[in-house]
Design brief:
Blueprint (H helix, E strand, L loop, with lengths): L5 H4 L15 E3 L10 H10 L2 H5 L5 H11 L6 E4 L2 H12 L5 E6 L4 H8 L3 E6 L8 H7 L4 E7 L11 H14 L2 E5 L20 E6 L12 E5 L1 H8 L9 H12 L1 H24 L11 E4 L7 H9 L3 E3 L12 E4 L3 H24 L2
Parallel strand pairs: 1-10, 3-4, 3-5, 5-6, 6-7
Antiparallel strand pairs: 2-8, 7-8, 9-11
Length: 364
C-alpha cells in the first residue's frame, strides 16, 4: 500500500455516521432554521435552469455586485467553497512546517486539523469552565515566534463577542511582530463590529466570513476572504479553478435581490435568542453571553447533558453534544429556531427535568 505523508498518516478524522438531519428541528449546527419566504424560493426556482446546472460557474459578475453591496473593493475579496476551504487556503499560502500558530479553544475544529496537516505547532489558550476568556492573556501570549494568530469574533462555540478595540490591539501587536492575524467573522452579521475596517492600517490582517449563517446557505458551501489586494493575489494562487459552484452563485445573487430575507432572519434570531436564554435560565440552566444564532447552555450542572441530547432526539429535536474539553463538559451548544420550535423544545425539556428530579427524589 502506498503510504501518505507522515503528517496525513498521523491525522485522525472521524467519519460522520449520524442519521439524516433532514425534516428535524436542527438546533445543533448553528444553521439557519427559520425558513426562507415562499416568494424568495419561487424566485430561485424561476432562475434555476438546466443551463446553469450544465455550465461552469461564472463568478465575476457576482464579485462586482457583491463588492458594491459589501462596500469593499473587488480586489480585496476572494470567494471560496465554504469557510473551511477559505481557511485552508490561508494555511496553504502562508504556513510552513514547524511554524507556530496561536489559537483559542473552543474554536472551529478545522484550525487544528489544518495545523496538523501543514505540520504547524499550536499554542492554545482556553476558555475557563464558566466560558470566560482572558483576551489580555491571549494578546500577551502572542510573540515573535508565532507565524499566525487566529481569533473568532464572535466565538463559534460560545457566541460571545470581544471588544473591537481589544481585537484591534491583537492585530496591531501581530502586525508589529510580523505575524498573520486571521479573524474569523462567521457571525459578524449579528454584531455591529468588524475588523474589515482595519484593513488599510494592517497589511497582516485576513478576514474570513461565511454565507452559511445569516445568509443561510450552509448547504451550498460558500464563503469569502477579505484582505489587502496583495494578500488576495497570493491567496488566489491556491484557489480551485472555480471557487463557487453555479448554485451558490445563483443563491447569493438572489439574496442580494431579496435583502429583506437576511434582515428579517437577523431580527427573528435576536427575538429567538432572547426567548431561548430567558426560558433556559428560568429552568435553572445557565447560558453563555451569546449574541449570535446559538448559545451554550450548562445542562451538565444539573443533569447529564448527553442524556438530554438523547431525550430530545426522540422528539426530533437536535442539539449539540457536550463540549469535548474536560473542563467544559457541562456545556452544550443550542441553536436558535423559530419561536414555535423553541417552545416545543422547552416543553420537552421541562418534561425531562420533571421526570429526572421526580425519579431522583423517589430514589433517595
Amino acid at each position: 500500500m502506498i503510504q501518505p505523508k507522515e503528517a496525513i498518516n498521523n491525522l485522525i478524522r472521524t467519519a460522520e455516521k449520524e442519521p439524516s438531519r433532514l425534516h428535524k428541528y436542527r438546533m445543533d449546527r448553528n444553521e439557519r432554521t427559520h425558513p426562507f419566504s415562499e416568494s424568495f424560493m419561487n424566485y430561485i426556482r424561476k432562475k434555476l435552469t438546466g443551463e446553469i446546472i450544465m455550465t461552469y460557474s461564472e463568478i465575476e459578475p457576482l464579485y462586482e455586485r457583491f463588492s458594491k453591496w459589501l462596500g469593499v473593493d473587488r480586489n480585496r475579496i476572494l470567494f471560496h467553497s465554504g469557510s473551511d476551504l477559505a481557511i485552508k487556503a490561508v494555511f496553504e499560502t502562508y504556513i510552513r512546517p514547524k511554524d507556530r500558530i496561536l489559537l483559542h479553544l473552543p474554536g472551529y475544529a478545522m484550525y487544528k486539523v489544518y495545523a496538523q496537516m501543514f505540520q504547524a505547532q499550536v499554542d492554545v489558550l482556553e476558555y475557563d469552565s464558566d466560558l470566560r476568556f482572558n483576551l489580555d492573556q491571549f494578546i500577551d501570549a502572542l510573540n515573535e515566534k508565532h507565524r499566525m494568530v487566529v481569533i473568532e469574533n464572535p466565538n463559534g462555540f460560545v457566541g460571545n463577542k470581544h471588544p473591537i478595540k481589544k481585537i484591534e490591539e491583537l492585530i496591531e501587536k501581530a502586525h508589529r511582530l510580523g505575524v498573520i492575524a486571521l479573524v474569523d467573522e462567521a457571525y459578524f452579521h449579528f454584531i455591529d463590529d468588524t475588523t474589515v475596517d482595519f484593513l488599510d492600517s494592517f497589511d497582516n490582517l485576513i478576514v474570513v466570513r461565511t454565507f452559511s449563517k445569516a445568509f443561510g446557505l450552509a448547504g451550498l458551501r460558500a464563503a469569502y476572504l477579505v484582505s489587502l489586494p496583495k494578500n488576495i493575489q497570493f491567496l488566489y494562487r491556491v484557489k480551485p479553478m472555480h471557487e463557487l459552484n453555479s448554485m451558490a452563485v445563483l443563491a447569493i445573487s438572489a439574496l442580494l435581490d431579496y435583502e429583506d430575507e437576511i434582515r428579517r432572519f437577523i431580527e427573528e434570531t435576536k427575538e429567538s435568542l432572547h426567548y431561548l436564554k430567558t426560558s433556559l435560565n428560568k429552568l435553572g440552566i445557565a447560558t453563555s453571553d451569546s449574541c449570535t444564532n446559538f448559545l451554550a447552555a450548562r445542562f451538565g450542572a444539573i443533569v447529564d447533558g448527553a442524556e438530554v441530547v438523547k431525550y430530545l432526539q426522540k422528539a426530533n429535536i437536535l442539539i449539540r453534544r457536550p463540549f469535548r474539553e474536560k473542563h467544559l463538559k457541562e456545556w452544550l451548544r443550542v441553536g436558535t429556531a423559530p419561536l414555535e420550535v423553541e417552545k416545543l423544545m422547552i416543553k420537552e425539556l421541562e418534561k425531562y427535568l420533571k421526570f429526572h428530579f421526580t425519579s431522583k427524589k423517589a430514589n433517595r
